[in-house]
Amino acid sequence: MWTTFLDWLTKYQAVAIWLEGIALVLIFGLDWWNARTGHRETLEQLRLSRLQAESLQSSVQSVVNAERAWIMAELVWQSHKRPPLMLGASQGVSGVPVLSTNVGIQLKCKNEGRTPGWIYEVRGHMEIVSAESASITKLPENLEVIHGLGGAIGSDSYRERYVEFNCSGHLKSPQLLSLYVVVRYHDIFGTERETRIAYAIDSRNNIYLQDALTERNKNL
Fold this sequence. Notes:
Blueprint (H helix, E strand, L loop, with lengths): L1 H10 L1 H55 L3 E6 L8 E7 L5 E15 L5 E13 L14 E2 L5 E3 L4 E11 L7 E11 L5 E10 L5 E3 L8 E2 L1
Antiparallel strand pairs: 1-3, 2-3, 3-7, 4-5, 4-6, 4-8, 8-9, 9-10, 9-11
């Protein structure tokens, strides 16, 4: 009987090997399919997790925006102060006069948010430009420190201070004085914030917000 079995195995050895190969292919195929299905499930789980994280982040940001400090700023004339525009001149090198323009104006900062904000720095810049000047679309690099507005501002409260800006040259029509102010503060969440404002003054002392300059008018 054992001899008969050996004879049969020898006779059909090729078939057995072929069947074994098919079995191995089926096993590998099943493993591949399971791995592919598992990979798809993993990708779907990652996608759902990412969506949940984005939704949570959006919800947290909405809460922060609703509760944070929003310090707004504006520039206005003060009639009881000295004349708005003062044109000056000083002795320069080789006797050539150096022209300058001085502006005294009121800077107001008000907290429109629900919680306090803490101002830690205020800086400003003024320059004479033409109405079509491309330079006013860029942020000035040299900003002068404005003192006296630092500290906490509670909700619906404000601080204001008379400040002076100075630049070289005399304003002539149709030129404009371009004023730029940056107020830096932090909120109760410890996040550093920034408010930018840009105003223009013409030769008739009219002052208006340069709201078309989006980079110079922002609340971050």
